[in-house]
Design brief:
There is one protein chain. The protein has 27 helices and 34 strands. It is α+β, with helices and mostly antiparallel strands. Among the domains are: about 200 residues, Isoleucyl-tRNA Synthetase, domain 2 (Alpha-Beta Complex); about 170 residues, Isoleucyl-tRNA Synthetase, Domain 1, CATH 1.10.730; about 60 residues, Ubiquitin-like (UB roll) (Roll), CATH 3.10.20.590. The strands form 10 sheets. Strands 10, 11, 12, 13, 14, 15 and 18 form a 7-stranded mixed β-sheet that branches. Helix 20 packs parallel to helix 22. It starts with 7 loop residues before the first helix and ends with a strand. It binds one RNA strand of 86 nucleotides through helix 7, strand 11, strand 15, helix 20 and helix 21.
Length: about 850
RNA sequence: GCCGAAGUGGCGGAAUUGGCAGACGCACACGACUCAAAAUCGUGCGGGCUUUGCCCUUGUGGGUUCGACUCCCACCUUCGGCACCA
């Protein structure tokens, strides 16, 4: 028998064209169906699709296709995170306009995506660098501005000199720029911020609602937000009775143990404290040195904790005690109040600092069954205990002490309970050209004036100069900068910074719901139908960055009454990385395999199948060329099975009998349907779903072989083939479509209902049951499926070899699991 | 240091509610077909042994249980995140 070869290239091209022509994956509101929003993180248009992309898209597409067959109204959009530094840098390098460069890349990548057979609704495509998109990014900035959530302030900010721009805290990794890994410096600049800290509490507590988010992502966000409960405590300054130092502590119960006070070098009081004193020169030199040091130098493990006495003293609000005020490099201005009360006996850092600088140590918490003494302590004691040396609070349990001391301070007006977050406001200004301009105008008379909505978008000038390797800036363009003040009409200047690209990606999932809407960023009616995203898929690298920002934006829009969803993404799947030979694919290692090569050599169906089969989606995947071949072999095998069977159907009528072979095949069919459905829907384990389909194909081959002489029952065989094709459709959409049509169907396989299984067909007459003695398998018996426990035990005792093994032994106990095993416990 | 995830054949991985460890695939070996090769098909494939069968085996050591990859305790290793956060 010779059948037509499996020609993936021809099949895939044919169906891709047809799907496009028939607009097969368009989605619209349909209240008669349950909606399902499948979303993969949109790519930055680098121009090249890599295996990581192929993996996310394959995962998303399986879900989208599966859920459509299950009857959901699926929305599955795609777009481009097109603003940002890499485009600008590439543009400088190649001397092309970033817009043109980006457009070319998008065109190419879209082709690559389509060659993978991903079922996107391209009517919903968005491009964040298009004026009709960033117009609304600007609009959202203005919304925040009006709500007091966007503000400008002078602050010490992260500066990456390689990228020639400032960075948000989230974009600094271990003191290095997240994008280019160069050392981040600190600079004192006036910049725009978004008040994400106003939402810290909700961003933290709503994590609990996200039941279907991976624990590790939630934990990372929790840590990033870093909530601490404690108290703000006011210390007066002995030498300046009118001034005070506010300090935050999580341990107000140790207030009587304060033996010194440390200020951050940036603390606004430092200058005043030392002005005109003998300490002035020394302290100010230290301050300026520390401020110049990069974050990485300041926070390095080996960085010594340096502290300098200012010559001034703080007054303990509890007992009036005077303690020295120091300036210390380990105190951060950005956290709490930039001032720390030193309690060496009960804080390890303070302990080390005190020992080094010969500061006194005083024990104020005594643990039970132990007597701490300042002189003999080897480390700080941070645990629980009774308060001592604490005046009227002596003898109090320290946990209660926290409350009592705080209440006392509050009453005296010397402090109050306070919650502090590690999270800082989001710095969104970027000193770069390729981004959405911040829609603000500075007027000498009116001050800071927002661009009126009607004048949006503030468009990027397109005739940009990129020669000479210079970073272009909007400040160079007089035609851009010079503008009339919208309020008074006099000459004014535009803000020349652009917005962080993470702004653009913080709301794109909303724009997809109404990409052409011209009245607002999105049509609330559409958004309320489609949102939230039911399944979001993307890389773990955005655990804090994008995923936190998008949550923040969603909450702001919820508060503005624009959407009903309080959280953007109901379920999150953080897919693993693609490795080869134990290392991340990279040019320098020479272990790169591209989607293009795979599509060309084996076809998209093979590539998709392998990438889904090799590993569960959230785990890292090790690329294996041999494994790809194995998947290709399986598809060819399936192809041949269909083709050969069709020839058989054409040749004769076959058999009409239902023998055990037919029943067995049917059982395999229904078992496969059950498993594949469950594995996709409930478990997202596509690898085991695929293995179940493989088993079904194997079983069908076995059936054909077993019935070679008596002839196959064509109806049963045909049913098995059709079910196989349906199950395969989400994974290998082209091969499934082609086979489906060859089976004589006219309508797309992707428009079919997902097959259901019949539990009756899974029932077997007889089952094999394992007989154990003392937990070890000692034999097997075959019993009727429905047999009583007594019968089961009886058969087990009679089983081959079991009888002799039981001879002369006392049976202590017999445990049975119906249909599975009998365990006879003997002595 | 703190937090999180994970350790199963030569390899990727499976075992869904505590019930036959190793599904499915890769690699390998042998066989069939062939002049030959490729493709395909078939068989075998955790380790050991005194091989009708027995013993060992899911990072290590203990525990619970008739029975543990699965539950509990302690530890080891790897990966990831945070790291002077007061």
């Amino acid at each position: 028998m010779s059948v037509k070869k499996y020609d993936s290239a021809q099949i895939e091209e044919h169906w891709q064209k047809l799907w496009e022509k028939e607009d097969s994956y368009r989605s619209e509101i349909d209240h008669s169906k349950t909606k399902y929003y499948v979303l993969e993180m949109f790519p930055y248009p680098s121009g090249k699709l890599h295996m990581g992309h192929m993996r996310v898209y394959s995962i998303g597409d399986v879900l989208a296709r599966f859920l459509r067959m299950r009857g959901y109204n699926v929305i599955h959009p795609m777009g481009w995170d097109a603003f940002g530094l890499p485009a600008e840098n590439a543009a400088i390098e190649h001397n092309v306009n970033p817009a043109r460069w980006t457009a070319r890349n998008i065109e190419h990548m879209k082709k690559q995506q389509n060659r993978l057979g991903v079922s996107y609704d391209w009517h919903r495509e968005v491009n964040t660098s298009a004026p009709d998109y960033y117009r609304w990014s600007q609009w959202l900035f203005l919304l925040m501005y009006k709500k007091g959530l966007a503000y400008k302030k002078k602050a010490s900010v992260n500066w990456c000199s390689d990228c020639a721009t400032v960075l948000a805290n989230e974009q600094v990794e271990k003191g290095l720029c997240w994008r280019c890994s160069s050392v981040v410096e600190t600079r004192e600049l006036e910049q725009w911020f978004l008040r994400i800290t106003d939402y810290a509490e909700r961003l933290l507590y709503d994590l609990d609602k996200l039941e279907d988010w991976p624990e590790r992502v939630k934990v990372m966000q929790q840590h990033w937000i870093g909530r601490s409960e404690g108290a703000e405590i006011v210390f007066k300054i002995k030498e300046f009775p009118g001034d005070e130092i506010r300090t935050f502590t999580t341990r107000p119960d140790t207030l009587f143990g304060v033996t010194y006070m440390v200020l951050a070098p940036e603390h606004p009081l430092v200058n005043r404290l030392v002005e005109g004193t003998e300490k002035e020169k020394e302290v100010l030199e230290f301050v300026s040195e520390t401020r110049q040091a990069s974050e990485i130098e300041r926070t390095a493990d080996e960085a010594p904790k340096i502290g300098l006495f200012t010559g001034r003293h703080a007054v303990n609000p509890m007992n009036g005690e005077e303690v020295p005020i120091l300036v210390g490099n380990y105190v951060l201005m950005a956290y709490g109040t930039g001032a720390v009360m030193g309690v060496p006996a009960h804080d390890q850092r303070d302990f080390e600092f005190a020992r080094k600088h010969n500061l006194p140590i005083r024990v104020v918490i005594q643990p039970e069954g132990e007597e701490l003494s300042a002189g003999s302590m080897q480390e700080a004691y941070a645990g629980e205990g009774k308060m001592v040396n604490s005046g009227t609070f002596d003898g109090l349990d320290n946990l209660q002490g926290i409350k009592k001391v705080t209440a006392y301070l509050d009453q005296q007006g010397l402090g109050r309970a306070q919650v502090t977050y590690r999270l800082r406001d989001w710095l969104i200004s970027r000193q770069r050209y390729w981004g959405a301009p911040i829609p603000i105008i500075y007027c000498d008379k009116c001050g800071t004036v927002p661009v009126p909505e009607a004048n949006l978008p503030v468009e990027l000038p397109m005739e940009v100069e990129l020669s000479g390797n210079r970073v272009p800036s909007l400040a160079q363009y007089d035609r851009f900068v010079n503008v009339k003040c919208p309020a008074c009409g006099s000459a004014a200047r535009r803000e020349t910074d652009t917005m962080d690209t993470f702004i653009c990606s913080s709301w794109y999932f909303l724009r997809y719901t109404s990409p052409h809407f011209t009245e607002a960023p999105f049509d609330s009616e559409e958004a309320n139908y489609w949102m939230p995203v039911d399944q979001y898929i993307g890389g773990i690298e955005h655990a804090v960055l994008h995923l936190l920002y998008a949550r923040f934006f969603t909450k702001v829009l919820y508060d503005a009454g624009m959407i009903n969803a309080e959280e953007p993404f109901s379920r999150l799947l953080a897919q693993g990385m693609v490795y080869k030979d134990g290392a991340k694919m990279s040019k320098s290692k020479g272990n790169v395999v591209t989607p293009d090569e795979i599509v060309e050599q084996y076809g998209a169906d093979t590539g998709r199948l392998f990438i889904l089969f090799a590993s569960p989606p959230e785990k890292d995947l090790d690329w294996s060329d041999k494994g790809v071949e194995g998947c290709h072999r399986f598809l060819r095998r399936t192809w041949r099975l269909v083709a050969e069977s069709l020839e058989q159907f054409a040749e004769g009528e076959g058999s009409f009998k239902i023998t055990e072979h037919e029943t067995t095949l049917e059982r395999h069919v229904h078992a496969a349907i059950k498993k594949v459905t469950h594995d996709i829907h409930e478990r997202f384990n596509f690898n085991t779903a695929i293995s179940a389909i493989m088993e079904l194909v194997n079983a069908t081959y076995a059936y054909r072989q077993a019935t070679n002489e008596m002839g196959q029952n064509h109806a049963v065989l045909r049913d098995s083939l059709e079910k196989t094709i349906l199950l395969l459709a989400p994974f290998a959409p082209h091969l499934a479509e082609e086979s489906w049509h060859q089976m004589g169907h006219r309508e797309s396989v992707h428009k079919q209902g997902w097959p259901g299984y019949d539990p009756e067909k899974l029932v077997v007459d007889e089952v094999e049951v394992v007989v154990q003695i003392n937990g070890k398998v000692r034999g097997r018996i075959t019993v009727p499926f429905e047999c009583t426990e007594e019968e089961l035990i009886e058969k087990a005792r009679e089983g081959e070899r079991i009888g002799e093994l039981l001879e002369g032994k006392d049976v202590v106990k017999i445990v049975t699991v119906p249909g599975k095993l009998v365990n006879i416990v003997i002595r």
